[in-house]
Amino acid sequence: MTIKPLILLPDPVLRQPSATVERVDDDLRRLADDMLETMYDAPGIGLAAVQVGIPRRLLVIDVAGEEEGRRPQVFINPEVVATSDERSIYEEGCLSIPDYYAEVERPARVTVRHLDRDGKEQTVEAEGLLATCLQHEIDHLNGVLFIDHISKLKRDMVVKKFTKLARQRA
Ligand code: GNR
Ligand code: NI
After folding, report:
1. What distance in Å separates the CA atoms of residue 99 and residue 97, rounded to the nearest whole number?
2. What is the three-class DSSP state of 154?
3. How large is the C-alpha radius of gyration of the chain?
4. Which of the listed residues 4, 10, 13, 58 has the most CB atoms within 10 Å of its CB?
């Protein structure tokens, strides 16, 4: 397994819509395992393939607490098929926007249809942190970042700061 470098704001790859996964094979499972290792190393609770520069519709999540051990979940071609009217607010962060956090309001519960790592169709009903994380990751597959859900003033400030940081790294 390999830890892959994370793609950071304002890399245009993050704005690219990810392509549907056509085949769930060993190569894809290897990529999912690399993404999990990268996520645990960061550390984070979710990661979309586009965040390691691979714009395909694949994401990994582990929202287990410290004492629960690892509960890795792989979602391939996920689709939100239902959302609750009730909404909830979480302070979100993103591994592609390090050390920036902001409150985001989203549906409190979502139903997601996807393929698991065996290519089998699954449906999960999520609430709490898992619901928020799934929506955050599925946004990534559509080129959407959590800063798109905050005010334009705050978003412009964050993009400006990360654009400057990228220039310094170059
Ligand atoms: O590690 C992460 N934490 C997090 C916290 C609140 C809402 C969403 C997230 S996802 C984030 C990892 C990440 O950037 N996934 O795309
Ligand atoms: Ni993110």
Report:
1. 7
2. helix
3. 16
4. 58
Whether 37 is a known active-site residue: answer no
The pLDDT, as a whole number, for residue 11 is 98
Query: What CA–CA distances, in Å, run from 146 to 12, 49, 86, 90?
Result: 15, 16, 19, 11
CATH topology (fold) of 12-169 = Peptide Deformylase (3.90.45)
CA 12 to chain centre: 16
User: What 3-state DSSP class applies to 116?
Assistant: coil
Alpha carbon of 118 to ligand 2 centroid (Å): 25
For ligand 1, whether the C-beta of 100 sits within 6 Å is: no
Cβ contacts of residue 142 below 8 Å, gap of 6+?
17, 18
Is residue 60 within 6 Å of ligand 1 at its C-beta? no
Ligand nearest to the CA of 104: 1
Residue 34 in contact with ligand 1 by CB distance below 6 A: no
